[in-house]
Amino acid sequence: MADALVSVVLEQLGSMIAQKVEKEAVLKLGLHCQGCTEKIVKIVRKAEGVQEIVIDRLVTVKGTMDVKALAETLKERLKRPVDIVTPKEEKGRCDSSLSGLLGVAISGLLGVTISGLLGVATSLI
């Protein structure tokens, strides 16, 4: 019973994390002229989940979009290489905040479930 409970909790946790996690992606690609910049903006704005785009030597995109799919779309449409660059200042903070989120979610979900099970078990005894 406990294994099934843990399996359900982990499955729910995975789906919660997969849903709408806002992130920042930095893409490196050749910006030749104003026309290139406008085309990039047009392509990026059509992508699902994009909330903000900033272009200054690099293309920075914020939102809940699929970064790999966005980079692949740009590569196909622009016919040039697109590299995903990790933002330096966000790298450490993002990793620690995600692990903190996991810890809170797991302890919160398990705490409620375990206390509920203990209450049921106590009432049966």
Question: What do these coordinates show?
Answer:
This is HMA domain-containing protein. The chain crosses the membrane at residues 98-121. InterPro entries: HIPP01/3/5/6 (IPR044594), HMA_dom (IPR006121), HMA_dom_sf (IPR036163). This protein has 125 residues and is an alpha+beta fold. The chain has one domain (2-124): Alpha-Beta Plaits, CATH 3.30.70. The protein is built from 4 helices and 4 strands. The protein has helices at residues 2-18, 34-46, 67-78, 88-124, and strands at 23-28, 50-56, 58-63, 83-85. Strands 2-3-1-4 form a 4-stranded antiparallel β-sheet. The model is unreliable at 89-124 (pLDDT under 50).
Fraction of residues in helix: 55-70%
Give a count of the beta strands, DSSP E runs of length 2 or more. 4
Query: What's the order of the H and E elements?
Result: HEHEEHEH
Structural class by sheet pairing and helices: alpha+beta
The residue-averaged pLDDT reads 74
Keywords: Membrane, Transmembrane, Transmembrane helix
InterPro entries: HIPP01/3/5/6, HMA_dom, HMA_dom_sf
GO molecular function, one term: metal ion binding
Protein name: HMA domain-containing protein
